[in-house]
């Protein structure tokens, strides 16, 4: 269990908490900001166009991050009818993923410089702290790419569905996601991680110059 490992190392635990708050907050804020840019102020009126973490953390999604290593924030409410065009839904959906990757890239600059100079990440508390934030943002981005509602990747599938199919897909999706998580816990057979891991490691190499992901 990830939570047990975090508690055994107070530094990693603290860094993980900070990384979690930063990653989820910027992700959900990006959704709200893009929706606003596309003409929909639903999120703004509900107080989601803010960098206040309390507005974005989802209780279950947060718990899942600690228990199984991936999770989600509170979904940002949108009204597609207020948007300028249908494709704006995809812009809003992928804004969070792109923002997590941009943040990871920026924070990974000191890590890349250190690795190029032969400095180990573990030798510096600052680099270790940044490394955890970078890793978590990469993990959040990749997890949200999965095409299962309510994750962001599902919007790409929904884009090609009619209204009835879209509603059915949105309804059954969360149960599939929770079912997979429960199945992993009961059978101890990883289902989601094998899908995510190659993408995570590739992004880690591109963003910080290392395959290693600490989380």
Detailed description of the structure:
- The chain has one domain.
- The model has no long low-confidence stretch (mean pLDDT 88).
- The N and C termini lie close together (12 Å).
- It has 215 residues and is an all-alpha fold.
- Helix content is 67%, strand content 0%.
- Helix 2 packs antiparallel against helix 5 (88-107) and helix 7 packs across helix 10 (193-208).
- The protein is built from 10 helices and no strands.
- It is globular.
**Count of extended strands:** 0
Hey, roughly how much beta strand do the residues contain?
Answer: under 5%
Give the number of helices: 10
Number of domains: 1
The N- and C-terminal alpha carbons lie at a distance of: 12 Å
Uncertain stretches: none
C-alpha Rg, in Å?
Answer: 18 Å
Give a nutshell description of this structure.
By secondary structure, this protein is mainly alpha-helical.
Features:
215 residues, 67% helix, mainly alpha
Set out the fold topology.
Elements: H1 2-7, H2 10-37, H3 42-45, H4 59-68, H5 88-107, H6 109-116, H7 125-145, H8 154-158, H9 163-187, H10 193-208
Helix pairs in contact: 2-5, 2-7, 5-7, 7-10
């Amino acid at each position: 269990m990830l939570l047990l490992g975090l508690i055994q190392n107070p530094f990693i635990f603290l860094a993980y908490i900070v990384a979690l708050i930063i990653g989820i907050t910027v992700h959900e804020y990006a959704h709200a900001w893009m929706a606003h840019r596309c003409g929909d102020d639903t999120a703004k009126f509900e107080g989601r166009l803010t960098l206040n973490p309390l507005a974005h953390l989802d209780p279950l999604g947060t718990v899942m991050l600690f228990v199984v290593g991936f999770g989600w924030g509170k979904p940002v409410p949108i009204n597609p009818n207020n948007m300028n065009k249908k494709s704006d839904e995809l812009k809003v959906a992928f804004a969070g993923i792109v923002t997590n990757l941009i943040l990871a890239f920026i924070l990974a600059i000191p890590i890349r410089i250190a690795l190029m100079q032969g400095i180990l990440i573990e030798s510096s508390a600052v680099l270790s702290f940044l490394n955890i934030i970078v890793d978590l943002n990469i993990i959040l981005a990749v997890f949200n790419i999965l095409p299962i509602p309510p994750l962001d990747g599902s919007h790409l599938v929904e884009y090609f569905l009619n209204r009835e199919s879209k509603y059915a897909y949105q309804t059954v999706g969360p149960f599939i996601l929770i079912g997979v998580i429960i199945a992993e816990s009961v059978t101890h057979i990883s289902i989601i991680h094998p899908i995510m891991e190659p993408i995570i490691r590739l992004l880690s190499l591109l963003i910080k110059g290392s395959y290693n992901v600490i989380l």
